């Protein structure tokens, strides 16, 4: 009898463990469901360092002075820190030089990073200035590719600086965006989407600017129920569709052809695609700036996202595989 009870106990324990494992698996799957994007977003990126857009003179009681120009700082340089304190925007710089003393500026230039000594100048209003214009972050329009669990992925490529290098960011906000118009692409001149940010709500917090796209955490208030759940797959040569938005806030489905597939890990140009849909060709002439991140769906599965347009043929472009976006 004791042996029977022991067997029954072990059986119940086994069933409990199996049930726990099954429940955990279901919970994990629910947290990692992928939802199809294709909707536009406003990107407000906070860059690391204070980017110098231009130099200016400071009018003082002793005459005109140009602290940064005289110190050898140039347009395009980035001030990373002042006296060892990190600075990322104009407000940070203003606070760091408020006492008017000479400052050691850590400056990133094309050829490397230097420590440059500069003496702030007091203007006629009594404030100390370095004689620089500083860009406070980067704003632009792009497309969200997918939402996975509590994270989002977008663009399919990095946001870059003037030299083509990925921007070093400290964060940012992703806002809903309403597309109000577009400029059609033409040979040698890419088109673009035009839109407005809806800043009374957020899609999420931007955290990473990587080769494979811009990523972050979706806001708790973001409603995923309006999105379509989808599985992922591998792309192949043949007919597919992109989901993108050229008016308003809701994406539409457009037919494309995948002309070429390259299976290179870490690459952002895994597909060569061609727009077939006459509606899109007649409106935007094909791919335009702001469509980056538009999901590519083939045989009902998410296989990648649009990343680039051919400068000399807006009906053609590149796409990144979903594997390379997820395995960032």
Write a structural description:
The protein is an alpha+beta fold and 328 residues long. Helix content is 16%, strand content 45%. It contains five helices and 25 strands. It has helices at 2-31, 67-71, 90-96, 278-283, 322-326; strands at 34-36, 40-47, 50-55, 58-60, 63-65, 78-82, 85-86, 103-109, 112-118, 121-122, 128-129, 132-135, 138-148, 151-154, 169-183, 192-197, 204-210, 213-218, 231-232, 238-244, 252-261, 271-275, 295-298, 301-310, 313-321. β10 and β11 (128-129) form a beta hairpin. It is elongated and about 70 Å long. The termini are far apart. Residues 1-31 have low confidence and may be disordered.
**Average pLDDT number:** 87
Distance between the termini: 58 Å
The total beta strand count reads 25
Q: Per the principal axes of the C-alpha atoms, what is the gross shape?
A: elongated
- How would you spell out the order of helices and strands? HEEEEEHEEHEEEEEEEEEEEEEEEHEEEH
* Class based on secondary structure composition and strand pairing: alpha+beta
Alpha carbon gyration radius: 26 Å
The percent range for helix content is: 10-25%
Q: How much strand content do the residues show? A: over 45%
Biggest sheet statistics: 6 strands, antiparallel, barrel
Strand order of the largest sheet: 2-13-14-18-17-15
Number of discrete helical segments: 5
Poorly predicted tracts of residues: 1-31
